[in-house]
Write a structure and sequence with these properties.
about 120 residues; alpha+beta; Lipocalin; 1 helix; about 25% helix; signal; Lipocalin family protein
Amino acid sequence: MGTRISCIFVFAAGVCLLAGCASHGEQVLQGEWLQPVPGMAPLWQGFRLEADGTAGSVGMATLQYETWRWQGDDLLLSGRSIGNGQTIRMVDTLRIVRLTADTLVVARGADEEVFVRNK
């Protein structure tokens, strides 16, 4: 009986630990992430991730992010793409390659993009 209770305790502790890691990861992702606009060096573009799951685009008038979530290894950015008189609902799926306190590297297919945290 004691072994069974110990196993249940270890399992419950593991679940709590994993839940805490996911929450901590989302906290690390929150903030504004920017990269130089290709070919327009003084300009920056990127996105803002809020604690309540809302998102916003930075420097991208035709791509409007509205919400975000972290699912497995992916950052999912949902919103609207606006152009040529039409608006299309979209989800941008970015695989998180590396995440530190000030750098976010994501992959879209074979292409990697580097973002830095705006402080």
